[in-house]
Amino acid sequence: MDLALIWHSGDPVLVSVFVLLLMMSVVSWCLILLRSSLLLRIKRGQKRFLASFWKASDWKEATSLTAHAIAPEAKLARAGWEGFIHYRSNAGKGLGLAVSLDDFLVRTLRTRLSQENARLELGLSWLATVGSVSPFVGLFGTVWGIYHALVAIAAKGDASLATVAGPIGEALVATAAGLAVAIPAVVAYNAFVRANRVIAQGLDGFAHDLHAQLLTAAAIEKEGK
């Protein structure tokens, strides 16, 4: 299997197939490495943030922890607290009269939850596309290569095994290349979907706890007045 020979002697379509597969592979591996690093940092950040957040003595200390934390829970906590402050300063006027704190917090947390889930899914559509499309791109290259190899063999008038095996074997490399691009993308896609699902479940539970905590803070504040 000599890829250099294909590059020098292959026709433009077959070379384009290999270039396209190479680009898809490079982008996929960049995504895989970046997302693996991000997920690793998120998991470490989650443990640190949650341990510190629930130990905070008050909301001022709790919100200060969200400033530079990478954990999605930190962004959710900041959004919830900012929503709480916003409602408190606008509760007696305009649209604030038409909605309760409970409903406002639910909407705020739900919006932020959706944004964090969307952020976690960045790049997954590319991996899914590469995983499903690249085998067909490779197959197209193989079909194209075999067709032109057979045309060339017919023109020579020599159908011996030595003449047929070389060009057809080189054309089959395109299918192998397509699978080599697709398999890592599919494995990574499934692993990231699984990891995102675990993070999303944790976020959902944190959102419920945060919602209850903010309502409790509002009730204590109301009783203190």
TrEMBL record:
It is found in: Cell inner membrane; Membrane. Keywords: Cell inner membrane, Cell membrane, Membrane, Protein transport, Transmembrane, Transmembrane helix, Transport. It is a multi-pass membrane protein. GO terms for cellular component: plasma membrane. Residues 103-201 form the MotA/TolQ/ExbB proton channel domain. The chain crosses the membrane at residues 12-34, 122-151, 171-192. InterPro entries: ExbB/TolQ_transport (IPR050790), MotA_ExbB_proton_chnl (IPR002898). The accessory proteins ExbB and ExbD seem to form a complex with TonB. Belongs to the exbB/tolQ family. This is Biopolymer transport protein ExbB. It comes from Iodobacter ciconiae.
